[in-house]
Amino acid sequence: MTETRDPKRYRPNVGLAMFHREGPVFLGKRYGAEGPYQWQMPQGGMDRGETAVEAAYRELEEEVGVRAEHVDLLEETSDWLYYEFPTHVRTKMRPRGRYMGQKQKWFAFRFKGRDSDIRLDTHTPEFVDWRWAPLESAPGLVIPFKRPTYEEVAKRFKKYSVGASK
Q: How many CB atoms lie within 10 A of CB 125?
C-alpha cells in the first residue's frame, strides 16, 4: 500500500470505523450485494471543497443516520490508504469515471449514542442491515479487493476495539 501511485487516478474517499463503547465496530450489510462478502464499514466520496473530516461526519450521517453528537472522533489516519477496483468493476464504472480505485482517509469514532440512534433510512440506503462485530473479523467479511485496506485499518485501530470506560 505504500508504493508510488498517481493520486489523481484514485477517487478521494473516507472510511469510518465506528466503535461501540464496549469495543466492537459497526458493520453494514451492503444494499444489493450478493455472495459471501456483503459486510463493510461505512465509506463514501469527498465532495469538491470538502475536507476529509467534513466528509467523514457527512457520510456517517448519510449512511447510518448517526449525527456528530453521537460520536467522539478518536483518530484520522495521517496518510491515504489505497485500493484498486478489479477490472470488472472499472468496466462497469467507465462511463462515470476515470479512477483506478479509491484513496481513503480512515476515521475512528467512539459511538456514544443508543442503537436506536442508528438509522439506515435517512438517505439513499447503502445498507440493508447492520451489526456490531469484532474489528478483526471485518477483513474476512468485506469484498476481497478491499481486504488489504481493512487489514491495515484493523491493525491501526485495534487499540479502540477494547472498549472505553464510561
A: 13
